[in-house]
Amino acid sequence: MGSNTSGPRSTSERFHDPDAGVIFQSVDGVKYRIHHKNLECSSNGFPPMELGSNEKEVASLSEESKILDLLFVFMYPEPQPDLEKLSFDVLAALAEAAERYQVFSAMAMCKVHMIANVHQHPLEALSYAARHNYEDVLDKAAVVAIERPIDEVVFALVNTPHAAFAWVRYYEAWRKALERALRRPSSCLSGCNTWSTSCISVLEKLGGRVGSLCEVDKIFSGLGAASCCNYQMKDWRSKVNNARNAIPKFSTFLVDDRAKKLAFGVMTI
Ligand SMILES: [Zn+2]
């Protein structure tokens, strides 16, 4: 499709219509000619638009051509790229570009695919959601990221200090819930000998890891407890579940922080 016969391309094969008045250039030197009306209808954040709207002027963008190739397709009425086939790095970069230039359809599709990636990339999804205020993504990523060491998560949120601070409070809520979960009933009602063996097994699995609260069913299954222990064991399991379910969603800690910022001025860390 391209007119170049060799070497790196200098013009987009897809976006080269001479009637398209806005010219963008990727950081790796590929030019894109985009119709003004498409920019207006499908995006709201191209700051260099005025510069680019002057014929022959070129607006330089900070994205690579492999990202802009995808992004600009979202601004035209044609089949959209299959984001499922992208590597996560390209998806994340596309999501950032979509947010920066407010390409609405790309923003929505990238969000869906970021949610699909929370299990493989919880910290990246958390950071993306914190920067762009997507509470549903935050909450989905947070319950996966809670398995990670607190310093790793805080580091991932370094560009959004309010979210990093909220994470410390969220982690503390999980730690307190674990503390409650570890309070076991003192003995089986019949005073049997197998109670302590079952208890040790549960305590070992709960351990000192807050993420163990996500595995309550696994922790309390296959204990081989004597039937006389069942009532107390069931009671303990239900208390652990209650402790886990009482932990507020991560987004609620952010809402709290925003309210405090409004009340006390801008928070600095
Ligand atoms: Zn017993």
From TrEMBL:
InterPro entries in UniProt: SKP1/BTB/POZ_sf (IPR011333)
Gene3D superfamilies in the record: Potassium Channel Kv1.1, Chain A
Domain of life: Eukaryota
Protein name stated in the entry: BTB domain-containing protein
